[in-house]
Protein 1
Amino acid sequence: MATMLDVSLRAGVSKATVSRVLNGTGQVKESTRKRVFAAMEELGYRPNFLAQSLANRTSNSIGLVVSTFAGFYFGRLLQQASRQTEAYGKQLIVTDGHDAPDREELAVQMLADRRCDAIILYTRFMSEKAIIRLIDETPVPLIVINRELHQAHDKCVFFEQQDAAFQAVEYLITQGHHDIACITVPIHTPTGKARLIGYRKALEKHGIPWDPAKVKYGDSTMTRGYELCREFLQEGVSVSALFACNDDMALGASKALYQAGLRIPQDISLFGFDDAPSARWLEPGLSTVYLPIDTMITTAIDQAIRLANKETIAAIPPFTGTLVLRESVAPGPFFPGTEQTS
Amino acid sequence: MATMLDVSLRAGVSKATVSRVLNGTGQVKESTRKRVFAAMEELGYRPNFLAQSLANRTSNSIGLVVSTFAGFYFGRLLQQASRQTEAYGKQLIVTDGHDAPDREELAVQMLADRRCDAIILYTRFMSEKAIIRLIDETPVPLIVINRELHQAHDKCVFFEQQDAAFQAVEYLITQGHHDIACITVPIHTPTGKARLIGYRKALEKHGIPWDPAKVKYGDSTMTRGYELCREFLQEGVSVSALFACNDDMALGASKALYQAGLRIPQDISLFGFDDAPSARWLEPGLSTVYLPIDTMITTAIDQAIRLANKETIAAIPPFTGTLVLRESVAPGPFFPGTEQTS
DNA sequence: CTGTTAGCGCCTTCAT
DNA sequence: ATGAAGGCGCTAACAG
């Protein structure tokens, strides 16, 4: 590994000059600049990134920690994040938090240790308190995605989970469904809670009583969606629609439904969440809610870059979901026109 | 940011001593060790990772470059990679190559610049020549995954793509299918070529003539799977089974089939590749080939660590796929017992 | 056991 | 326009 000293010797100049041509700082005579470049070329010189960063106190890179790498959702997120940081000419460094709050915190620290210019944190498990503490203690600017931070509104970019779930369920209701089952995503996460509350509020608004027997607590996996749906079936819970709080569980549930001889949507309607890539290719196409993850991460990166540049940032208004209606929902028993005595 | 000097001053010792207690190297009296720890605590000291790495010429981390972040496949890969590096107490740094050969190369360089102890490269696009050159020129050890390297057999861990495809198609044939369509993954990649060759060889072995009209060149996406399947349908290509070279395209194709009024597997059999998480939850369950990506990446990391430790490594035998048989294949027209005049 | 002294490779005033 | 010198924060002999 040729060093800057080697280059300077070979070009017959000082290290300072080499540094100048390397960074385009200061004035350097064209002829010597050429000599330096030639020397670099000949030696196959590559600047030592670590040394540069140490001297500069910045590494021209932004860090991203996701709670896990699994799932299409994070793939989408990462891909877009990569594109956007690239657009800023910065490197993206990704780590995951092993789906555990303490590991998420460690991941942030590690990125901070590497002197990322800014860090974006996608956490599913850390408490707001812990997050705020982390923001305060971490020496590099932090942006939190997928989480509303009441004590740091400008540092977060998040999604109206509750409202989106509300919309989905209300849609089901207006389609004539009153008996709607719900399978949640992990209920100990803010996302899990918010979606369930959305479900509940929609029922409330339309005067449909809350029935605990109609909700089951899932973990986001297809397998669990399948299992919980079977439980509903075995328990004979009477519903005309099922709201699965993510598409993966909806898929699992659909298998259980099929095995029970129930057709979607003729016998039971199904609604998902996330708009997984597969949703539109399933048969029938799965109605779901689209979550603008691409724009969200893009925005998060924009904010992070601003912070890194010590510019001021303004709070970002929450992002909202949009219903994607396909064929997995049919009019229910209370649909106007088909109304029966209830 | 408190530095080591701050700590040493506060503890009334020299930097060297602080360094010793920090790294557990050399002998330090218990009492002073305690003073140092106390000082660190009080100052909230965190060692500067960049400085450490610069002095050590190693960063205790291993780099991973994937061609893209998109898709369940890479999620699986990344998750397992993260776990395994963690088991070694090393940090994992991930970057993507934006699905372009030159970007993949840049990604490797960037990781090398950061002095990763070793790098694992998952490339879909680089030529073998370019890879070999990269291995030679990169100052940090490189392991290539998903690619057979004839000129560096010990530096690669790969999968028998061709044989797996062969098995899948042969299975179809033994089930009585002779007219089998094929939709490839990107044909300019080694993977794309290998799977197609596997298809072709299986036909050959069973004396079934190769029919160019029965193969279409896809891009791995569900959308394209759908489109190409429609083309088959419109062209009236007569087949009793379809071999999609990945599950995503199989899903897209299944939609086209459904829309054409064709039932799987009664009217046409479908075979995928990759064993996507959704494969078993589709209706009918998709027969496909399982690719041991978890073990592969784990092995790759083991190898990388060995290289990082300057241990010797032996070539890893190729990994093989295993057929996962579900319900998307039914006996075809030439199935023994149901055989007709052909 | 602990301090002193050099680096690691690069950047950045400050002179010239 | 260029060089000399010091510093970024840490590690590693080498002396005591």
Note: Residues 13-17, 20, 26-29, 32, 51, 53-57 of chain A lie near DNA strand D (CB under 10 Å from a C1').
Protein 2
Amino acid sequence: MSENKQHISESQKKLALYAKVLGHPVRVYIIELLKRQTCCYSGDLAQELPIAKSTLSQHLKELKKAGLIQGEIKPPRIKYCLNIEKWEEARALLGDFLNT
Amino acid sequence: MSENKQHISESQKKLALYAKVLGHPVRVYIIELLKRQTCCYSGDLAQELPIAKSTLSQHLKELKKAGLIQGEIKPPRIKYCLNIEKWEEARALLGDFLNT
DNA sequence: AATTCAGTTCGTAAAATTACGAACAATTAT
DNA sequence: ATAATTGTTCGTAATTTTACGAACTGAATT
């Protein structure tokens, strides 16, 4: 009667976290932009996207929290770039998930 | 003053939906299982996973809604399988996103 | 010093997600 | 017919997500 519940692996949790942060169209859009041009300003995004700047800021925060992007202060603006290391990790995890 | 907001593409929305449904460890676990053995019963999952069967059923419903799995009634059980067509679509979309 | 600009944080609200147990439905076994 | 098995649906609750406008911060300009 040993309740032998198999648990979910750490890499599955990590994968789910990356997938989750990519689970919103605005965040997909931002990442696709940064893949093309490596960096951008929040204002550029605000012009292109039909959302309030505070909402955009929240999405950027989510991406930062997940580690996928990083911001560099270039007064009076903030330059956002992909965090290559983390992006590669996400790529590896998701790629492996998809292809094996 | 033409409010020329660029909108998010349909494929970005689709990608986000697939990513979203993969954004939970339990659902990642289920998909990984189905990739290995193509089919399984809900009861098998219930034994392995530390969640209520009703919660599991909800996750299966999410995966069905996204099209990634399909259920076949094999009384008194239900056999779940990957929906190959949809899985390939998700693979293609996500793979392209990751690798270009 | 006051204004402007870019962007974040705060306060708030609505909706979606996650989770559980209880009740239910359908089939099988007794 | 009754009971057991498998899994879903229902009702509910707590948490998270998404979104907005207003207020704020820090730097640059006037």
Note: Chain A touches chain B at residues 5-8, 12-13, 15-17, 19-29, 31-32, 35, 47-50, 90-91, 94-95, 97-100 (CB under 8 Å).
